[in-house]
């Protein structure tokens, strides 16, 4: 049987095949292309179906296993400290909070056994300029009874002073016969709870420098209006944070000097590797004491404070290569060095940076940069490398110190030749390492 197809039938079959191919192509393109209207409609329905299924599963899961939500914590932000913003205290229902959180005291160094984050500051222990964290909004209603909750105790000034210790002294002033001049006897007693060394916190080698200051004008509260009359230094007490000095110093002062003078006690820690570090200080104005009528003397217990000094800034960079176990310290530049400590003019300043590597309090190696002369903001751009195993990184300490060399020699010393050179005078230093507190 033979079928005869005319021309119009052939055209119709060809047109149907072309239409099927076009429809197939359109459907494929619409499912692939996200801008197609058909694709949008299909995906919208699928997303709605998925969201409804997730919501049903979440509701059924929470009710079946966990039940109703439970309030875990409450917040009481009504407790005020003595020195600043409210101290938030977090407590669970039924829990008595007797001590404040460990982060409620800001800007102080803690010499306790608690673990604190260490930060690398400039060459001076200046206070931080950052702001305190903002206290959260209280969720306790204003009309709620908060008398039953135990709030943290207020932080007193004596609690803050314990981190820098205390010093006991005895002052006695006696007038000479038929004279307007008398003798002021300063007896140094015991010191307690002094701050430990930066890299060896359990001990220090303290000594005291006593400075008698006289006000040039009546503006006694301004440090710039004082001049030094006399200065004394005690002996060094080795390896203790609770030294007993038992030393006396005598200075002659008139009656008018008593009203205009003040005693400043500077406590230092003597370091055999670099210059002594000031760890505390306290100022005692004599005008506030009734020395002329106290025949037996006046005993004083002075609470030491954080030292105030700024010897400049040092810009450095650290990098460690684990494959070769090499640590590099890139000394870039120093800025605003206080050259008055070591020389009279900046033209005579010969500044170099010394890097000392210590382990367990012992000197392992030292290196130094070339000397830059005649500038209190020298540029070094020098890299100093040390071979340190990865397992010893948490045990070593670096002392980076800026020193002045009277005999300017621009050669770098990469070897260990006994103790560091004592011909130079140090301007300032920083400590780097995990053991730093």
Automatic annotation (TrEMBL):
Metal-binding as UniProt keyword: no
Spans annotated as Disordered: 119-157
Pfam families membership: C2
Domain C2: from-to ranges: 163-302
The keyword Ion transport belongs to this UniProt entry's keyword annotation: no
Membrane-crossing residue ranges in chain numbering: 12-35
Superkingdom as given in the UniProt entry: Eukaryota
Keywords annotated in UniProt: Membrane, Transmembrane, Transmembrane helix
Composition bias, Polar residues: 119-138, 146-157
Protein name (record): C2 domain-containing protein
SMART domains, per the entry: C2
